[in-house]
Amino acid sequence: MAEIRKHNQSAVHGSKLLMTGSTMALTDELVSLSLRPAIDVGPEPHRKPLTEAEVEMLANRLLHEPTGAPLWIFAYGSLIWKPDFDAVESQHGATRGWHRSFCLQMTRWRGTRAQPGLMMALDRGGRCNGVVFRLADDDRLGQIRRLIRREVGTIDDAATVRWIPVTTPHGLVRALVFWAGPKGERVSRKLPLETVAQVLARACGHMGSCAEYLYLTVKHLEERGIRDRNLWRLQKLVAAELVAIHGLNAAVGSH
C-alpha cells in the first residue's frame, strides 16, 4: 500500500501544476443543494438480483481468465475515488474505442422511481483516459466477489463486464472493466449534455445525488491530471442548473 500511496501523492502534485488556473464551477456548496434524504425501496420487481451461486460462478470465471497474468482493473468513474479492492499499484491508462457516457437510467442508489438518475458507463467509440489498478495477488477471488457485488446487479448486467486493452506509461495491459457497452431498455445513448445536466442536477437517491457523483469523478480525475472534455463541460452545465433551480446569484457557480 505504501507503493500506491507514493504514486498517488506524486500524481496529485503533478496534476496541481498541470491544472493551475482551472477551477470547477460545480462546488461543494452547490453539490450540497442536490442532496436530500431518500428511502431505499429496493430493486425493481423485474430486476432479479444475482444469487450467491451466480456471483460465485462469475467470480471464478473472471479469476481464471487472466491465465496467470497480473489482475488489472480499469477505473473511469467511482472506482477511482471509491475503490473496493486492495491495489498495490496504479497508473494512468487510456483505452481506445470507448468513452464515458451518462447513458444508463437508474431508479435506485442515486435516483428514485419518481426522479430517475443517470449512471455513467463506457459506450462505444472515442477514447477514455482513466486509471488502472493492479490488485494484490492475495485473495483475488474474494476481491473479485466484492467487485461483482458492488458493480453487477443482475445476471443481465454481467454482460457489461469485459476485458479491454489499456495503454499505460509502461506498456499495454489487459484490464477488467465494469459497465462497458450496456444494452437494454434502461440505456439512452447520445443524450445532449444539456439534457444530461438537467437530470444530474435533480436526481438523488439513498446513496447520494447524481451531481455529487459527477463532482467527485471530475475532481479526482483533475487531481490525477486527467481532463475529460465532456465531463468538464457537463459539470459547468450542472452547476448552472443548480444555480437556476435554487434561485441563486449566477456568480455563485461561475468561475
Automatic annotation (TrEMBL):
Taxonomic lineage of this organism? Bacteria, Pseudomonadati, Pseudomonadota, Alphaproteobacteria, Hyphomicrobiales
InterPro entries recorded: ChaC (IPR006840), GGCT-like (IPR013024), GGCT-like_sf (IPR036568)
Native species:
Rhizobium brockwellii
> Which protein are we looking at?
glutathione-specific gamma-glutamylcyclotransferase
- Which EC number(s) are documented for this chain? 4.3.2.7
Q: Sorted alphabetically, which CDD domains does this protein's record hold? A: GGCT_like (cd06661)
The UniProt keywords, alphabetically, are: Lyase
Q: Which domain of life is it from?
A: Bacteria
